[in-house]
């Protein structure tokens, strides 16, 4: 097997359907996005990086919490839909969209939030671990939120749980908290794992 699913795999999926995972319409996805955003420990972020943005459904929500979002995908068709969606939502100016891969060198911006939503399992374990080690090392203090499907998918090199185990083993990332059910795991990591109450100085929090 190659180190990740090829671009052509996703180009074909988007050729068949504009929204292959029903991201824009399915309640499962809307609920998952709400959980993902609810887990973010800070009220606001300066600049988020969202690899595998697809048609921009989560991107559109992220701009409500982030001054700017840099969103990438390997599929041109997905990026075109994302641009239309963000235009229609009036937030296109807050988002840099470009064609690139999670496993390519990340843009040089000092991101304070990384969002890995349903994208980690397209890489094999070695490549995902290498990318996270390389890129997180130059983002001190970053918050990383990840959300992944937990059921097996035959084509994917990793399961969602395996992706989260690899993220948790990345130097400099500590799990701050997570939501998990039969379908999905959503987990947030930070440099120190300090709780929100502790950061805010809520009396009684350590
Ligand atoms: C299931 S969609 C996830 C969409 C979005 N992140 C969400 O949670 O709603 C997966 C997306 O990842 C993209 N993708 C697959 N492999 C990738 C890679 N190596 N780098 C960047 N994007 C990738 C696909 O083209 C697809 O648009």
TrEMBL record:
Domain of life, source organism: Bacteria
InterPro entries to which the protein is assigned, alphabetical: SAM-dependent_MTases_sf (IPR029063), SAM-MeTfrase_NodS-like (IPR008715)
Keywords from the UniProt entry: Methyltransferase, S-adenosyl-L-methionine, Transferase
GO molecular function: methyltransferase activity
GO biological process: methylation
Transmembrane portions of the chain: none
KW Transferase (keyword) present: yes
Pfam entry (one): NodS
PANTHER family in the cross-refs: METHYLTRANSFERASE, UBIQUINONE BIOSYNTHESIS O-METHYLTRANSFERASE, MITOCHONDRIAL
Protein name in the entry: Methyltransferase domain-containing protein
